[in-house]
Amino acid sequence: QVQLVESGGGLVQTGGSLRLSCSASGRAFDGYVMAWFRQVPGKEREFAAAIRWTSGNTYYGNSVKGRFTISRDNAKNTVYLQMNSLKPEDTAVYYCAANQFYRVEAAAYDYWGQGTQVTVSS
Q1: Percentage of the chain surpassing pLDDT 70?
Q2: Other C-beta atoms within 10 Å of 20: how many?
Q3: Quick one: pLDDT at residue 90?
Q4: pLDDT category, 2, cuts 50, 70, 90?
Q5: Which of 27, 35, 40, 116 is the most buried (most CB within 10 A)?
Q6: CB under 8 A, 24+ apart: contacts of 44-53
Q7: How many whole angstroms separate alpha carbon 4 and alpha carbon 23?
Q8: What angle is formed at CA 118 by the lines to CA 116 and CA 122, rounded to 5 degrees?
Q9: What is the DSSP letter of 104?
Q10: What sign does the CA torsion over 68, 38, 114, 50 have?
Q11: Closest Cα partner for 80 from 1, 2, 8?
Q12: What span, in angstroms and rounded, lies between the C-alpha atoms of 96 and 21?
């Protein structure tokens, strides 16, 4: 019912920046929470950031707080993750997710994109 497509991943040097985009389609997103998770092979999917679509309230995981900013463009049905001061530890596949309520657990989210690779090199 909801389709999410991530883009914007790539290779960046330590200290650099990237902006990820998540384009949503299939239904209205008023009242939804949109989130970004990231995952390294063999490890659990980690919460990075979330935003309430209607209010714009934002939430961040401790590992990215102060460096990443989540935002949305209502007209484009797109959520962004601006990533600054990137570290090698940020290297992961980044996934966009949508849910009707805010949770930090990946298992709680109903809709997922395919992911986009972010690699931070030294």
Answers
A1: 97
A2: 24
A3: 98
A4: confident
A5: 35
A6: 44/106, 45/95, 45/106, 46/92, 47/104, 47/105, 47/106, 48/81, 48/94, 49/81, 50/102, 50/104, 51/79, 52/102, 53/29
A7: 6
A8: 170
A9: S
A10: negative
A11: 8
A12: 9
Tell me the chain's radius of gyration from C-alpha atoms.
13
CA of residue 70 relative to chain centroid, distance:
7
Q: Extract the tokens encoding 88.
A: 């090698």
81: helix, coil or strand? strand
Residue type, 63: S
Rounded to a whole number, what is the distance in angstroms from the first to the last CA of the chain? 40
Mean of pLDDT values over 52-78: 94
